[in-house]
Every structure is written in structure tokens, then in C-alpha cells.
Amino acid sequence: MKKIIINGANGYVASHFINELLDKNYEVIALARASKKYSAKDRMHDVLKDVNDGRYIKSENLKVYSYSLLDKDFSLSEENLKMIFKGNVNYFHFAASLKYDAKSKDDIFGTNINGLENSIDVFSKYSNSNSRFFFISTAYSCGKFSGIFKEKFYDNEDITKFRNYYEQSKRFAENIIKDNIERNNLNAHILRLSQVVGNNKSGITKTDYGVFDFTKRIYNLANRYPNKSVRVLVEPESTQNLIPIDTVVDYLMRSVEVQQLPQIMNFIAKNSIKNIHIINAICRLLPIKIIPSSYLNRKNMDALERIIHVGMSFSGSYVNTNIEFDTQNLDSIIMSINNEANEHTVYKMLEYFIDSLSGKSRSKVLLPTG
């Protein structure tokens, strides 16, 4: 039985991955933070229940440890760490700060750089030479890149080459991995994820990140000011690279199964979704008319439009993107998984998400007709 160790275990992607690993009878070690009210174990079990919509969790092979990412040896005892890393393990470093703004720079780099370095130290100290280290990065470590973003290392650059400090921190983190591969023979792989959305088959969506954060803001405005028309600074023909959570989990499972892997793989969607399709879906689901505009001066916005504009401080950085990603390395290990998001499945996800905001319970999400 393979042993999989995952830090940042109660995050969106990590928890779905753990759920699938347990279903396939893998031994899973989950490293998660405790909160003031709940233990790491309680938090982990709660998130797995949510992933399963309250159904039974197959947790016989799950062990949960409370850890501290930035502390020496994760604040775990030597005895526990020796037991955790015993045998050949696959170690997945999911832990990350998702903040992006300049005022959070120290926190972003503290978690995404110092946390990674500490994670490598713990892995290198306690794992054997056959164990593997997986770093969960982002496809947007590309920054303001033109051309095809390849599955290779890129040099560190200053913040002007990135949309935000989150992107920059992930580029720096990838190069820390590179240095450890070259200097210390770290057996490491980098998995770059694009924007992870809901389940492509069921429509179930448990994230409020990216397009769903935008949807939540529009939902609140539509309920307060129904049937209004609002302009948003969005290029309608630009695209969002949306990868379904079930596709990501399939890719992660394949990475566990294959012993010889490329060092870097772009976990991305080959077919991106145009902004106009997302906006049209939101307009069909909510009592609001959104008018995308490529040229919208903040001085000419009304009060509601300014509220939306301010709320898009993060997602707005990605509304005019048409990034191309190389997938040659990914294609070398993926056995023809055909599960791409499209207009209809994104509509299902948005429908589920909006229903969850309104408190509706849905046992089945149907494709829209017409």
C-alpha cells in the first residue's frame, strides 16, 4: 500500500484528492492546522464530510496530525515524523497563502517561500531516497507572459512581470525546488494548476475562488438591486482557463501511479472558456444584466459599477487573459482523460454555486436547455 503525505490537507484541492485516495485504499497522512475551536482531526473530517455531501467517509486509512508549517520539524516529535515518513512515500506540498496584495507580501512570502523551504527540510531529513516530493504550484507563475508557457523552469523576475505577489512567490518557490534538485538531489516534481472549479460531471462546486468569487459579488448586488444593468471592465472575448476538480484529482492520482514522471507538468484546461459565456450564464441565473466592456473608465462608472470594480481587485487581473500553456509533459502520462469544462458544465457549476448561496438544496443539477 502506498503512503501519501499531504500538508495543507484541508484545502479545496487537497481534500478532494484525499477523498479519492481513501476511496482507492491508499494510506493517507494528513497534516493540517488546528483552529482555536477545532482540532486538526475534526477540521479534516468536517471538510471530507463536505466533499462527500455528508455521506460516509472511508477513513480507516487516514491519520491526521496537527502541524505548524513554519516551525522546526512542523512542531511534531521526532518519533512521529519517523513514523510518518517510514517507507517509500509521496509527499504533496499543498500549503500556501492565497493572498495577493502588496500589504500581504510578508505573509505571502513567509508561507509560500519559507514554508516550502521548511517542508523540504523536513522531507529531506526524514524520508528515504525513493520517496518523492510534489510541489503544488500555479500555472499563473507564468506572470505577464506572452507566448506558450512551457513545462520548464523560468528565471525569477521582479514584481512588474507579475499580476500580483502570489504569482511571484510561486515562481520563486519553483526555483527553490530547482536549486534543491540540482544541489541536493531532491526527488521533486512541480504540478502547476490553473483555476480549479467545480465537478464537471455533477456540477457540485465547493469553492468560491476566481469566477465564483465574482459570481458571489454579483449575486449580492442582484439581490439588493434586482433587474439593474451594470457595466464591468471585462474583455468579453478573453478567456478563463478552468480545470474541473475531478479532472485535477484524476491527474493527481495518475501522478501517484506513475513512477517515472517529468519534473514539471502544467495541469491546465486545453480549451479555455470565454468571459462572455460566463457572464451570459450569470445573467441567466440572476436578475441582473451585466454588460462587459473592454474600455470602461472608472470616472464614468456609477456607484454599483464602482463597487463591482473594487471587488474585482484580484479576479480583475485575469479578465483580459488568453494564456497558452504547453502540455507535452502532462500528455506523456495522462491516458486520454477527456473531461474538459465547457459552456454547459460551467453553467451547471454556477447554478449549483448560486443555489448554495441562496440556501437551496439540490439533489441533482441538470444541464440547461435551449
Blueprint of the fold:
Elements: E1 3-7, H1 12-23, E2 27-32, H2 40-51, E3 62-66, H3 78-84, E4 89-93, H4 105-126, E5 132-138, E6 148-149, H5 165-184, E7 188-193, E8 195-197, H6 211-224, E9 228-233, E10 239-240, E11 242-244, H7 245-257, E12 264-267, E13 273-274, H8 275-285, E14 288-293, H9 303-311, E15 324-325, H10 328-333, H11 343-357
Parallel strand pairs: 1-2, 1-4, 2-3, 4-5, 5-7, 6-15, 7-12, 8-11, 9-14
Antiparallel strand pairs: 10-13
Helix pairs in contact: 1-2, 1-7, 4-5, 6-11, 8-11
Task: Walk me through this protein's architecture.
The chain has helices at 12-23, 40-51, 78-84, 105-126, 165-184, 211-224, 245-257, 275-285, 303-311, 328-333, 343-357; strands at residues 3-7, 27-32, 62-66, 89-93, 132-138, 148-149, 188-193, 195-197, 228-233, 239-240, 242-244, 264-267, 273-274, 288-293, 324-325. It has two domains: 3-195 and 242-267, 3-Layer(aba) Sandwich (Rossmann fold); 197-241 and 272-320 and 341-357, no CATH class. It has eleven helices and 15 strands. The strands form five sheets. It has a seven-stranded parallel β-sheet, with helices on both faces. With 370 residues, it is an alpha/beta fold. The longest helix has 22 residues, at 105-126. The chain is globular, with a radius of gyration of 21 Å.
What are the key terms here?
globular; alpha/beta; 2 domains; Rossmann fold; 370 residues; 38% helix; seven-stranded parallel sheet
Explain briefly what this protein structure is:
With 370 residues, this protein is α/β, with parallel strands linked by helices.
